[in-house]
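Thread title: Can someone regenerate the structure for this chain?

I was given the following input by a collaborator and told the matching structure tokens would be attached. They weren't. Posting the sequence so someone can regenerate them.
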Amino acid sequence: MSRCLIVRHEAEADLTEAALRYDEREPGLGLELTLEVRAAIRRALANPLHFLVMRQRPEVRRILARRFPYRIFFIVRVDAIVVFAVLHAARHDRHWRERL
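Best answer:
Regenerated them for you:
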């Protein structure tokens, strides 16, 4: 089954903010972060049930970025994958739970 991808504006804002911070440290690093997060989202889209369940109702799953310490949280629907948070690993879980 093919699902469409929905990235909520909060997740886009998370990624943009993080990329800008990384670019301040080293130019180009923000783009590398963005590419890594997008690769993780593609992995989730290809096999969404493979990733860790963080909450049952609604069923929230998490995928980790490989190179950067970021977690991507998403909900699997019948017709779509909904990414709603892209958070640094040091941020508390309440940040993604508040968005449900």
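The radius of gyration is 13 Å.
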